[in-house]
């Protein structure tokens, strides 16, 4: 039988509130159905209606599942009260403030402000949340492209930068990646004393090679160290052992906190691998 609508009537009471919380950690995700227009009954009533739309045909009596979507553990914990080990949608945020702090530790504050300003003038920005600007590091350790572009601009030699700011307004484009493709082509032409022509952009794969240079990879390693330091003196191995020994039944908050912490630190480890794969510098020892 083809089902278009699935109606699920639940009964909530004060006595089973804790059990409901526990059940959330055992919920499984699937792509068979999605919640549509959840509604609650009138205040004071113990009944709750939940309407679900089936997104594929199912047989009568067949078990159906709800999917939580492509959410990282931080979102799952905030919205539903549970986390998943090795969640492939997890990310790590690196604040722009951390990037500028690293930059001013090597260059001057004036250098930092000027390079960030040029980056913005080219039409780039990071992600924003609650007035905080940041960059995302994906589960596999690959940094957000906007971060790589900023590090590229920061690392430009002064004479190349001075020439670039004179023509930067011509590189702004609504076309995705066009600005950085033009910038990389301009920098290559300027560095080799060749004439620059806007026609014929650098191909994105070639641009990404330029964004995986030794100086940028070195910067990524430093940023990974700075971000890692926020976790204190314990190592990733220490956190993994603590998570393994933690019992979710008795220590729910500690358990979920450790899941988030371990996942983020593993992503930082992958970020180091990403950076090391393109760096010609000597291997560094990390905590």
TrEMBL record:
GO biological process, one term: methylation
Keyword Endoplasmic reticulum appears in the UniProt entry: no
Assigned keywords, A-Z: Methyltransferase, S-adenosyl-L-methionine, Transferase
Ranges of compositional bias, category Acidic residues: 15-34
Top-level lineage group: Eukaryota
Region annotation Disordered: where it falls in the sequence: 13-49
InterPro entries given in the database record: Rubisco_LSMT_subst-bd_sf, SET_dom_sf, SETD3_SETD6_MTase
GO molecular-function terms, A-Z: methyltransferase activity
Keyword Transferase: yes
Compositionally biased region (Polar residues): 35-44
SUPFAM superfamilies in alphabetical order: SET domain (SSF82199)
Name of the protein: SET domain-containing protein
Gene source species: Sorghum bicolor
């Amino acid at each position: 039988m083809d089902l278009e609508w699935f109606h699920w009537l639940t009964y909530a009471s004060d006595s089973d509130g804790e059990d409901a919380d526990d059940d959330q950690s055992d919920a499984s995700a699937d792509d068979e159905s999605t919640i549509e227009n959840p509604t609650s009954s009138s205040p004071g009533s113990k009944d709750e209606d939940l309407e679900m739309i089936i997104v594929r045909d199912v047989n009568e009596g067949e078990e159906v599942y709800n999917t939580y979507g492509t959410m990282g553990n931080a979102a799952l914990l905030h919205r539903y009260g549970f986390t998943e080990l090795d969640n492939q949608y997890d990310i790590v945020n690196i604040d722009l403030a951390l990037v500028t702090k690293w930059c001013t530790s090597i260059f001057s504050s004036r250098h930092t402000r000027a390079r960030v300003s040029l980056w913005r003038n080219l039409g780039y920005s990071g992600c924003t949340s609650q007035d905080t600007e940041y960059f995302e590091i994906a589960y596999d350790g690959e940094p957000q492209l906007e971060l790589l572009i900023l590090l590229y601009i920061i690392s430009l030699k002064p004479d190349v930068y001075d020439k670039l700011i004179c023509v930067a307004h011509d590189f702004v484009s609504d076309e995705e990646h066009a600005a950085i493709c033009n910038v990389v082509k301009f920098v290559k032409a300027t560095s080799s004393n060749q004439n620059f022509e806007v026609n014929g952009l650098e191909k994105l794969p070639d641009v990404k090679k330029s964004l995986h240079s030794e100086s940028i990879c070195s910067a990524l390693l430093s940023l990974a160290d700075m971000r890692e330091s926020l976790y204190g003196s314990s190592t990733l191995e220490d956190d993994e052992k603590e998570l393994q020994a933690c019992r979710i039944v008795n220590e729910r908050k500690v358990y979920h906190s450790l899941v988030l912490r371990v996942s983020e630190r593993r992503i930082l480890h992958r970020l180091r691998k990403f950076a090391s794969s393109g760096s010609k510098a000597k291997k560094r020892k990390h905590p």
